[in-house]
Write a structure and sequence with these properties.
Elements lengths: L1 E6 L3 H17 L4 E6 L3 H4 L5 H4 L7 H9 L4 E5 L11 E6 L7 E5 L5 H4 L6 E4 L2 H10 L4 E4 L4 H10 L4 E5 H6 L6 E5 L13 E6 L3 H7 L5 H16 L8 E7 L5 E8 L6 E8 L2 H27 L2
Parallel strand pairs: 1-2, 1-3, 6-7, 6-8
Antiparallel strand pairs: 3-10, 4-10, 5-8, 5-9, 11-12, 12-13
Helix pairs in contact: 10-11
The chain binds the ligand NCc1[nH]cc(CCC(=O)O)c1CC(=O)O.
The site of ligand PBG has 10 residues, from strand 8 and helix 8.
Enzyme class: transferase
GO molecular function, one term: hydroxymethylbilane synthase activity
Organism: Desulfurispira natronophila
Length: 309
């Protein structure tokens, strides 16, 4: 049997696809997995201002089209880039084990966030409103600048533009064997991670029952429950990937889902934080989102959408 995985061509995407390929081939000696690289709209406009307002699914549409037409059988995504809605005929079949969910600080001159906190004229790069908001909550006098592109490009821009550092996902740096660049890992309480950060997701055709049967071993039940709660919250807030929303869920020792979330204004001046514990990830995410919307998140998000249209 041959299975084709569709993937973006960035080093990180390829690592993730290779990782799933190795898992499948390690499990079945009679299955051959091949990778097909696909260029997405998001890849083409990476450095344009358009990418900033990109909208939902900039990195997945072309891949989904190839799934529908049968060119590929599986799409491997970073969970945090997967839209909350799927086209007819496709589904998010598996959420795999979650790696490191944290954000990481890469420092240009070996200084920690605490050391930089007293300095004037600090410039930090990020490509996420979530990270920007959470940096400004603590360090309101810092200058936050936009860096886009894949992990390697962002590191290069940091040097070229003389920034003091950038924030990246720990999981991405670890997968690219760039862990040595991390100055510090930021506690998820201080910087709440992006929805699904660190987990991988497999999208397949809903009707492909044979493949589903074969791949069910990749499903990680605890991660799935946690990420489903985070995604229910995001969906209820109608947030794409470019919103200042963070959510991170863990399992309690008695098997419940503990969801913590924050919504912050882009300038870091207003923030709504809530947490809750429950058994049903969907209900938990939806209820917490509604509670937060009523507690000020609705106003924050409306302002973000107005400014970024
Ligand atoms: N938005 C890009 C992206 N998508 C997934 C990761 C990292 C890996 C992950 O979170 O699973 C990154 C890089 C980053 O945010 O620094």
């Amino acid at each position: 049997m041959k299975i084709t995985i569709g993937t973006r061509a960035s080093k990180l995407a390829l690592w993730q696809a290779e990782h799933i390929k190795a898992e499948i081939e390690g499990r079945y000696s009679d299955v051959e997995v091949v990778l097909k690289k696909i260029v997405t709209k998001g890849d083409k406009i990476l450095d344009s201002p358009l990418a900033k307002v990109g909208g939902k699914g900039l990195f997945v549409k072309e891949i989904e089209n190839e799934l529908i037409s049968g060119e590929i059988d599986i799409a491997v995504h970073s969970m945090k880039d997967v839209p909350t809605e799927f086209p007819d005929g496709l589904e998010l079949f598996a959420i795999t084990y979650r790696g490191d969910p944290r954000d990481a600080f890469v420092s240009a001159h070996g200084k920690s966030l605490a050391e930089l906190s007293h300095k004037e004229d600090v410039t930090i790069g990020t490509s996420s409103l979530r990270r920007q908001a959470q940096l400004l909550i603590r360090y309101s006098h810092w200058n936050i600048v936009w860096v886009r592109g894949n992990v390697q490009t962002r590191l290069k821009r940091m040097e070229e533009r003389g920034m003091d550092g950038i924030i990246l996902a720990a999981a991405g740096l670890q997968r690219l064997e760039l862990e040595h660049l991390v100055q510090e890992y930021i506690d998820p309480e201080v910087m709440v991670p992006a929805i699904g950060q660190g987990a991988l997701g497999l999208e397949i055709r809903s009707a492909d029952n044979e493949l589903k049967e074969k791949l069910k071993f990749l499903i990680h039940p605890e991660t799935t429950q946690c990420v489903l709660a985070e995604r229910a919250l995001l969906r209820t807030m109608e947030g794409g990937c470019q919103v200042p929303i963070g959510a991170y869920a863990t399992m309690t020792s008695d098997g419940q889902v503990h969801l913590k979330a924050m919504v912050g204004s882009v300038d870091g001046k207003t923030v709504v934080r809530r947490e809750s514990i429950g058994n049903d990830p969907e209900v938990l995410g939806i209820d917490l989102a509604n509670e937060m919307l009523d507690a000020g998140a609705r106003a924050i998000l409306q302002e973000v959408y107005q400014d970024h249209q």
